[in-house]
Specification:
Layout (H helix, E strand, L loop, with lengths): L6 E4 L5 E4 L6 E4 H9 L6 E3 L23 E2 L8 H5 L5 E6 L10 H7 L5 E5 L6 H14 L6 H17 L7 E8 L3 E5 L5 H8 L3 E2 L10 E5 H6 L4 E5 L17 H4 L3 E5 L7 H16 L1
Parallel strand pairs: 3-4, 3-6, 4-5, 6-7, 8-10, 8-12, 12-13
Antiparallel strand pairs: 1-2, 8-9, 9-11
Length: about 290
Amino acid sequence: MRERTVWEFCDDRGQVSTAGRPPSRVLAYVQAGATLWDHGIRPSGIFGSGHDDPTVPDAAKTGSLPLDGVAYAGAGAALDVDTLLSGEPDLVVAVSYGGGQVYGLDPETAKHLEGHVPVVVIDVGQARTLTEIGDRFAELARSLGAEEPAAATQELDAVRGRLRALTSGPDRTRVLALSPAGQEQAHLARPRMWPELRVLAELGVGLVEPADGPGANWSTVGWDRAASLRPAVVLADIRAHATALDELRSDGPWATVAGSVRVVPWNPEPVCSARAHARFLALVADALEA
């Protein structure tokens, strides 16, 4: 007899996954796993992208997810179907930056994986607002029997109001989002391409827009150019593959502004929950108030 469908979910590719019972052993891309945790779902395992260490998950991406008891399947070339299935997941939750392509997995690996286990893909790309991305994760969590506490949404609403009040005056603090790339250059974020930065812009934060040129998401420039933009607040990429600002030369171009800049840690692959977003907005608000 064919198993009765009790659980189903239509992902952002329009693909419907079904099961005879709600999945309980979820293997997730690290960003998705941390987001589901804030909704009350503890993934059984997580995996990273080609940027990540194959042996240790990137702490910048794991949010408040406790890693004890959550297996790390690895990242990049280390991920094959056997490795991904080794923890016996009954659902894989992945992300995409458009086109339905699974981020962090080789296309052939992703294709063969779906022959063994349901795969749900959530689009986290620039075509969506952060609210829309968060809503999709919330829908998935509800289908699995969990939901983020209402207090998290209340906290987010409060900090949004705080930011609007801080940016209501005529003079806007210059805020620059960047990813340090060694001693010689930095990748300056184009705010319109990053859902979390677009939220800041909508709340009145004065984000610095890099000059037009190559690079859809980033404008890669020397540190002298980054320093010449004279930001008062820097949102600095804290993922493991980005250079830490305190590792830059003390006599380089960045040193000319480093002493007067307030630095806010920024993860360009944010945890897409109200709780995590409120925490980030609060850090930005603190920097603007300082």
